[in-house]
Design a protein that fits this description.
Layout: E1 13-19, H1 25-31, H2 36-43, E2 44-46, E3 60-66, E4 69-71, H3 72-84, E5 85-91, H4 93-97, H5 109-120, E6 134-139, E7 149-151, H6 158-169
Parallel strand pairs: 1-2, 1-3, 3-5, 5-7
Antiparallel strand pairs: 4-6
Length: 184
Amino acid sequence: MRHVAPTPPKRKLRVATASLAGCFGCHMSFLDIDERLLDLIDLVEFDRSPITDIKHCGPCDIGIIEGGVCNAENVHVLWELRANCKVLVALGACAVNGGLPAPRNHPAVGRCLTRLYRDRAGGAVPDDPELPLLLDKVRPLNEVVRIDFFIPGCPPSGDAIWKYLTDLISGRMPRLEHPMLHFD
């Protein structure tokens, strides 16, 4: 794919990223934009992100979040991003529809934990107050907060993420052509 840097905005945009319940593959795909990361750094400042290791989101222009919502901590992180980001983008199948963590939705959470910890491992279900409270089921992001844009894929390619981001940064409506879309 031809490498074209987007038109720089009048000021650097602030971008936050976060990962919830999933495999972290979407952030790895984000890193697959390779040398274009250098172009991106000329256009944006990163706020909360594994790239910066900042743990809380300040005011941002764009938030990108991967993973489904499976526990109270995920809900808190998602609400924080929604409250602080002008535009929120759901990245990948877990964020868009629950993805890989969603098979946990079929048995009841209590039954699932009992079977795993007590019946199979012969121990007790963990109940440490430091552990985030599990939700009754894994939810896609849009069941918890308003999401502005969705990038499907498991994970979406680095090229798809680059195209989407550069469209947003340049003030264009993001659009992915059919060859860049995949739902596997």
